[in-house]
Amino acid sequence: MCMCVFILISLATSLSFASVPDNGVSDCGHRNGNYEEIKCRNGIGCIRTEHICDGTPDCPDASDELLCPFHPERDLQSNLGWNRSRRQLTCPSGQWQCKNGYCISKNRLCDQVSDCSDNSDEASPLCRKRAIATSGVCVLPPYPEQGTYDVEDIPDARPGQAHSSVVLTVRCRRGYGVMDLYGDGSGIQQVYCVNGKWYQNMPKCVRFCKLDPDPSIRYMCYTPGTGITFCRNYVSPGTVVEPACNSPIYYAKEVLRNMKCISGVWDNYAECKVECGRITPGGQPLLIGGKEAKHGELPWHAAIYRRAPEVFMQICSGSLVSNNVVISAAHCFWKDLIKLLPASQFGVAVGKLHRSWNSEEDFFAQKSNVNEIRIEKLYDGVAANFQEDIAVLILSTPFNYTTYIRPVCLDFNLNFENFQLQDGVYGKLAGWGLTSPNGPPSESLKVLSLPFINEDTCISTLPDAFRGYITGDKFCAGYTNGKCQE
Ligand SMILES: *[C@@H]1O[C@H](CO)[C@@H](O)[C@H](O)[C@H]1NC(C)=O
Ligand SMILES: *[C@@H]1O[C@H](CO)[C@@H](O)[C@H](O)[C@H]1NC(C)=O
Fold first, then answer.
1. How far is the CA of 399 from the centre of ligand 2 (A)?
2. Burial of 309 by CB count in 10 Å (0-12 exposed, 13-18 middle, 19+ buried)?
3. Which residues does the UniProt record annotate as the domain Peptidase S1 (predicted)?
């Protein structure tokens, strides 16, 4: 009852204060400790500023509860509905209205400190929601740029979902990776969250440098903080790669510089070339007259086979000049009536000492079909005296260089040719040629060493019938006694 009387008084007083712009209380003019005090409207007594509009009158004249944005008791008394009055009397923007009408800064809402005298700022259902969102559960973050993540045991996980605890496995797009502890470019990193607490930062996907596996080079990786490791196919920025040629098959002309991955791009590339024309060390000196070849004596020797039609017959030899190119003679792939035969009829084997295609003794052999045979347009077999008798075979399966399989050097420099093709210089010839006139071909590879013969000597010593074949694109080698000629 007493309360009702009081409210009526304050209502009446409020009308007379309507033109007063402030709350009807003036500053007490002093601070006391950490809080500010102001004087009540009637000049009697000082109250803490925080008690203004807190729903409970503190001044003797209750002036501290006047002109408050919302005053439930007062509004009820004047027959206004709670909800209606709430709509009519609102807090300025940036403020939140306590249930009792008092306005507090929105920042103080749900800050775990009671700011409204009725505690409504902390009891609000809003706070319960927010508390869950900020401390109770793990809300899945957006996917990283250039990547995505999986959530362990939650196959349909999506950003924005809330779970009590999660293990995220971040995966970056191809070419990107996570700069993780190991810097190993695995591109995978895990992030844990338990009851709303994230234990790692969400990783970023950064551009990595690609390091294609290459049989010619070995790479070692130095990553800051990790030390030296074998490199993976994708290398994180900042990694320094030390390249080394896979000797003795591959070599570099100059000392290889270290490669550095800078923002996904290599500052330079190391290149190793295959060592061409090098006989594998350990082979014995060759003897004139032909001897059985040893593995690696002529590592570029390619045996050419024709399907006839089922079994492979060795018909010619060639030289490996790159891992998928063999140079041979056009007449091996030619029939005067049919002209060039289809590539599918031929096969090539390298690393072989034994003639038969399937010889089990040739452990190091590699074989390939022929994709394409290229010959000169001018080539016309016997009709043109075997002029331009050269063929380039493109293989379907590139050979893998080994100690016993390497290419011969190819050099188009005319000076080099003049230097090589002079009296006294020997060349090597390998094959399963005839061991004696009309005899069967040898079953194991033979190697011959033959001297160059200059054209004048060659033509003057050859029987007339052969002279026509010494066209400008050929040279002679062998012995003028007629034993071995080409
Ligand atoms: C205010 O409105 C809500 C729903 O809109 C209603 O449940 C409540 O009873 C209302 N309160 C008053 C005092 O009218
Ligand atoms: C070269 O090695 C690759 C990979 O081991 C293999 O697939 C391929 O058949 C090899 N080439 C030949 C001609 O044997």
1. 6
2. exposed
3. 287-486
- Ligand 2 within 6 A of CB of 400: yes
Which whole-number Å values give the CA distances from 436 to 6, 46, 263, in the listed order?
137, 132, 67
Contacts of 98 (CB under 8 A, 6+ apart): 55, 104, 115, 116, 117, 118, 120, 121
Question: Which residue is closest in CA terms to ligand 1's atom 7?
Answer: 83
Given a cut of 90, is residue 392 above it in pLDDT?
yes
Nearest alpha carbon, ligand 1 atom 5:
83
Angle at 309 between CA 306 and CA 314, to 5 degrees: 25
- Cα separation, 24 vs 38, in Å, equals 10
Tokens of 175: 């070419």
Q: Compute, in angstroms, the gap from residue 401 CA to the centroid of ligand 2.
A: 10
State whether residue 461 is helix, strand or coil: helix
Structure tokens at 218: 């070995």
**Ligand 1 binding site (Cβ under 6 Å of any ligand atom):** 81-83
Pocket of ligand 2 contains residue 317 by CB under 6 Å = no
pTM value is: 0.56
Residue of the nearest CA to atom 8 in ligand 1?
83
List the residue whose alpha carbon is closest to atom 10 of ligand 1: 83
For 124-174, write each residue's pLDDT tens digit.
Answer: 666 665 655 555 778 899 999 999 999 988 888 889 888 877 888 888 888
The yes-or-no verdict on residue 362 having pLDDT over 70 is yes
Highest mean pLDDT (candidates 21-25, 221-225, 412-416): 412-416
Cα(430)–Cα(223) distance, integer angstroms: 49
CA nearest 204: which of 143, 261, 140, 144?
144
Mutate to test the pocket of ligand 2, among 366, 368, 371 (most ligand atoms within 8 A of CB): 366
In order, the DSSP letters of 135-162 are IISEEPPPPPTTEEEEETTBTT--TT-E
Give dist(CA 425, CA 475) in Å, integer: 13
Amino acid at 270: A
Nearest by Cα to 405 from 348, 361, 448: 348
- 398 CA distance to ligand 2 middle (Å): 7
Q: CA–CA separation, 35 vs 49, rounded Å?
A: 8
Sign (positive or negative) of CA dihedral 318, 324, 330, 332: positive
Given a cut of 70, whether residue 81 has pLDDT beyond it is: no
* 397 Cβ below 6 A of ligand 2: yes
The type of residue at 392 is V
Model pLDDT for residues 327-338, shown as the tens digit of each residue = 999 999 999 889
| Per-residue CA distances from 178 to 145, 163, 167 (Å) | 11, 24, 16
Q: Name the closest-CA residue to atom 7, ligand 2.
A: 397
